[in-house]
Automatic annotation (TrEMBL):
SUPFAM superfamilies: ABC transporter transmembrane region, P-loop containing nucleoside triphosphate hydrolases. The chain crosses the membrane at residues 66-88, 109-128, 140-160, 340-358, 395-413, 472-493, 499-522, 583-604, 616-642, 980-1001, 1031-1056, 1113-1138. Keywords: ATP-binding, Membrane, Nucleotide-binding, Repeat, Translocase, Transmembrane, Transmembrane helix, Transport, Vacuole. This is Metal resistance protein YCF1. Residues 921-930 have a biased composition (Low complexity). The lineage of its organism: Eukaryota, Fungi, Dikarya, Basidiomycota, Ustilaginomycotina. It is a multi-pass membrane protein. PROSITE patterns: ABC_TM1F (PS50929), ABC_TRANSPORTER_1 (PS00211), ABC_TRANSPORTER_2 (PS50893).
Amino acid sequence: MADLGAWVPGFGTSFWFETPAHVYDAVLKPADASSPVGSLLCDSAEGWGPMSPTRDFDLTPCFQALVLWFLPALAFCVVTLVSLPFWLSSERKPRSESSMHLLYEKDGMAGAIAGLGFVEFVVLIGLRSHVHGGASALTGGVQVLAAGAMFLAYVAAFFLQRAMHMRARHGSDAAILLWSLHMFTGPIRLRTILQLAEPGSAIQLLTVIPLCMRLLFALFALCLECCDVEIEDGIALPDDDEDLLVDEGAVDITAQEPDEQPQESPVETANLFSRLVFHWMQPLMSLGAKRYLTEADMWALPHGEDTERLSDAFQTRWIAGAHASLEQGRPLSETGRARFWHTLLGAFGRPFLIAAIFKVAQDVLAFVQPQLLRALLAFVGRWETADGPEARGTPLRGFVLVGLLFLTAMLQTMSLHQYFQLVSMAGMRARAGIVSAIFRKSLRLSNQARSERRTGDLVNLMSVDANRLPDFVMYAHILWSAVFQITIAFVSLYNLLGWSAFVGIAIMVVSVPLNTALAHYLRQLSAQQMKVRDKRTGLMNEIVLNIKSIKLFAWEEAFTRRLLKVRNDEELPLLRNIGMASAGFNFFWQAIPFFVSLGTFVTFSATSTQPLTADIVFPALSLYQLLNFPLSMLAGIVSMFLQTQVSAERLASFFDAEELDGRARRLKAGVPPPNGEAVRFRGATFTWSLDESTTPALRDLDLTIRRGELVALLGRVGDGKSSLLSAVLGDMVRLRGRITVQGEVAYFSQGGWCMGATVRDNILFGRAYDEAHYQQCLEACALGPDLAILEHGDLTEIGERGVSLSGGQRARVALARACYAGADIYLLDDPLAAVDAHVGAHLWEHVLGPRGMLRDKTRVLTLNAVSYLPQCDKIVTLRQGTLLPEQGTFEEVMAMKGDVYRIISSLRSDEDEVQAHKQQEAQAAHEAAAPSDVPRPRALAKAELKRETLRHLRESQAPKELQETGSVQWRVYQRYIHSASALGVVLFFVAHIVTQAFTVARDVVLKQWSAANAEPGAAENPHVARHYLTLYAAMGLLTSVGVCVAPMILYVWLVLSSARRFHDGLFLSVLRYPLQWFETTPTGRLLNLFSRDISVIDEVLPRVIQGMTRSSVVVLGVLCVVTYSVPAFLLAVVPLAMAYRAVMRYYLASSRELKRIDAVSKSPIFTWFQESLGGLSTIRAFGQAHAFTDAFEARVDRNQMCYFPAVTCNRWLAVRIECLGSVVILLASTLAVIIVVTGGRMSAGLLGLMLSQALSTTQSLNWAVRSASEVEQNIVSVERVLSYAGLPQERPYTIESTAPPADWPARGEVEFRDYSTRYREGLDLVLRNVSFTSRAGERIGVCGRTGAGKSSLTLALFRILEAESGSIWIDGVNIASLGLHELRQAMAIIPQDPQLWHGTLRQNLDPLVHYSDTELYRALEQARLAHLVDDHEDGLERPVAEGGTNFSAGQRQLICIARALVRQSRILVLDEATSSIDLETDALIQQIVRQEFTGTSITIAHRLATIMDSDRVLVLSQGEVAEFDTPANLLDRPSSLFYALAKESGLVDRRNSQLL
């Protein structure tokens, strides 16, 4: 700053140091000699200054009037002219009586100030020609001009304050700044008046008294303007403000739902000072210090921060950017990353760009502070060496410099943290907008694009890539700020060292290619790491989704090997390499400033005749330290930027991914006329992918479906039945032809998709609740008895994917959803497959058939049953993607006697006479049925839906996520240290301490060298320079090497060890949890744990531990140096440390809980995302994409409400800590100046040492406190992992002492002895005293109505459910005595839900790699799937998509059957194994089981025909054995339950006819 005197005449030099005589030559000349303007405005002999040449340490009157009064007044008037019209056009807000009184007081103060300003203006004009001598400077032209401008500013302030009080949420920031400026400029002007005017003169009295009164009123006005304008004491307005009264009804509505909406954030009404120091956070911080914070304590988001608005802004700009790129002829793949950053800046860049202003201010102030310190040292030096009081000058100079030092530090603090707050807001906006955009895009992805991305990939985009943006945005400005700071540092070094400084620049330039290569390598590693992390997250997702199959088949070891191979053999080595590369970055960025300083000092010593003394060394060293910060930060930011670039590229690629073709179908508005075309195919060919190697799934379709028709779609497995429905939905790619759809569509997906909500929410599905219609749907879908069993009825939460319901219940809930929608066209994919025969008959009678509630609707349903075909209006059959010509009514199709005729004839259960009777009955029913009246409930409005979402999250019955409270327990730290290695942790700390010792030693060498150079003759001795340069080089090199040793220990040893132990331990624990735990724990919660929390343990926690350790060791080193130099400083350290600890404890109480709440509130986001990806077809078919997006955005907003205070509380802490440090510096420097001016003993060197060390101590303590708090915040991830790793597990996996022989079970005898069980503690028994015995090789059929306990029997046999009482014996062995692995691997099961995972067909059939290709192929042949291998070039290595989505539902079930057959167990369980298979294939499978399988089979089936040839049938009723006998014997007893079930299925009629 002192050098500015050389550039701007009269500025700086006289202020900081002694005043050269020539500087003020122009000022001392007569005023009219300068310029005409100067003589007109400034007729003072002192001129424009800024410093007075005649008076000690004061600004000239002209400079004061122009800079301190006129320019601020002019700026205020401009701001008022711009903002006042806006506020006057805004709506006036209601104000309370107290608020109106406050306004009147403001008006009074502003009016009084304006009056006094006018008085001063008039006085100056009146006295202008009557005042002579030095006092005439007070009435010059610029003084009158300033007084007039200030009067206008006061008038403007009056109107601006009033307008904003009535229309804004807080007082005027401009007015606050104006009144605050008076507090600084007023005393300066007062001192000048007292110096220039004679005591008791008229001008003194007429200017001093109004000025003092004005300052007093300005102080009151400042206090009033800082008050809250929204004082709540009831609305009581003056008579002339009736238009501001609030509608009482609106107030009442708000009062009725006090808990529905969170409280408004105080930042909305906070004044300028409150926002600058974050005082608006104080209520939350105080609350957190009194009790543990909860989610209910969180404030609403500030206005404009809602996710919907942010996502809209991002998507609008992204689409515009894509169009612009295409118009320019540039492919999207080349411009994706650049467009991503442009979109981000355009959508969320406003706070980010404003933050740059604060960053520039902070950078400039950072270099001003050392200059002020130099000036203060010069002041002390002058007082030490000067002979008399005149030479010393006024003591006020020292106190002003101290005040400016404090003011600079405070402004720097506020600038820095306003910058941080703004970039945090920008990052928060970017995260919310992009997370929502990812969700929206996921709903629009084409099938091809979706198949290319596993669910884990999409989850990683949301959990990792989107979360990197706030971290990068927080520090992005460092990229240019570091260059700016480096430039300032080198300019200052050049002024200090001359041309020698350019040697340092050359060294920096030479280092750039090396660092660029290292950065490129790091970027490649980051890209690989993200791919591997996607792979691991995707595999983890599949393990969670398929956990039932994994447990039933005892495949835990196989999947553990797969996951740990990815984790330990691919991901962790990358983590190690990234850590080593980062340590290399640390070395170079630490070494570069050292080599710069070394090269500069060597060059200076060799080329300069001037010795390298302390006044050169230590200023240069301080500049190198300032240089060190931007360089070290630049290293981390470049590394972070490269990682974020990878994320930006991934996100851009995702946003550019192919979407569903909106032209795949033509949608016509309205309802078709009676007998009009509802769906029409004309020569339409469809495929799932545009890939040329993909065969079209549907070819040359010509089909018309008319309004009100009931169309049955027949075909074998894989013939394209589900594909045809998808084509109507618009989910496929149309290659040629066209399809027209008219009317709203409802869709039932195969198996029935449900979301993790209540039964009611699943049925309403985003529509308003209509009691009568809702009950009608429940009754029609036979859900009444099921809801009666559930604990909370239809308000019972059914778990993710409806896991707590049986397959039949899930299907009926999904069907009820379709009924409730009141659509025009119903697309039903095998709705009767998952239900019992009697339930199917009920659904047909009341929902689907000619007398059902949908009788007047267009219904297209795929069927694997023929008994209902006579009642269909049209039968359509698919064969390998093409329509057979045999179409029409049942009679027409049968008359054609083609393929369809043969299939139906072979599978029909009735004779012609019986069928004729049914046809007549159906025809009569169709004619007799009255027109149905199915209402269409309105869709919920956006606000209603978001409110319902938040209500559901608050009132959810699902188990709450584990969340600790209070301080993180010491055992968590112990476990973390133990997981890493206690020895390694010790070496890590030792490395940091040794590095700091080398750093101190390096500075000591310079100190000794400068002291040696100060001795006579030392400068001419080359050995002195060589000796100290060698020592300096050695210490510097050791410091640079030491800086990368600790990170190497951390990343190569400690991080890998802890990462492996925590991840592997967590996974192995989770894998051993009971199946019921997975059914009640949302997948998103687990994925959040394995993605976000594991990522924190891998990367974030080590980084903040490194920062905390480094800053703490620096504090320790500084304390040692200061204590050695100034022992008295210890007296200040103790209270300083105590104050810091108090602030930190106060802060941690809140920040810790806020971090936990933030972590917990993330899980519902991932859970909803996961569920939505599983039900994309259903969501799109019902037109609920916007509703699901709204619900998702409500969840993101809820998380943002927790994230915003969690981030802001860091600013609250930092401002207070740095202000505390600034106060310490103020006190210390003030005391030092007092000692100097009172004749005490205080040298400039001692003061400089004390202040410089105090400054560094405060900064280092600040970083230590913040790093320690970040460690505690992020150690919460370790705490969460440990809490999940310690939950109750299943019984022992293996028990060697009771392990059965290798060939067990040899016979396959199963015996249940009085067996009872329940799903969870506190629930009713699902099986009660079940007793039966199966003989070796016997085929047992199990049947019963829905909820009878059929599937529970399977779970009990595999010990998914443990016995409450009784036991199960297999070949004379009590299965409770075995390990779960020995038991489960000895049996095979074909589960109800076909579960496949990403990989190959071979991996899906044989994860343990136990069987040969021949054995696998034979199993596929048995399951009628040999063509899957024969028709594909990869054979058994044919890829399987995530969830097996590249196969039809029937094919997936057949693959699961092949999987069970290849195991060749003695016991085979079929749990609804053929529900999604056509009857022809079902019969073949049963034949295979009878012929190929010689062991004991237990078959659970809804279709009684499937178990009619069983040796014996077990009939269950309400969890008890109702009957157990041969089918023939049971059918001979008309009173038996089996007879009743068979009669409902039409099997009794068939048997009777056969007997006849």
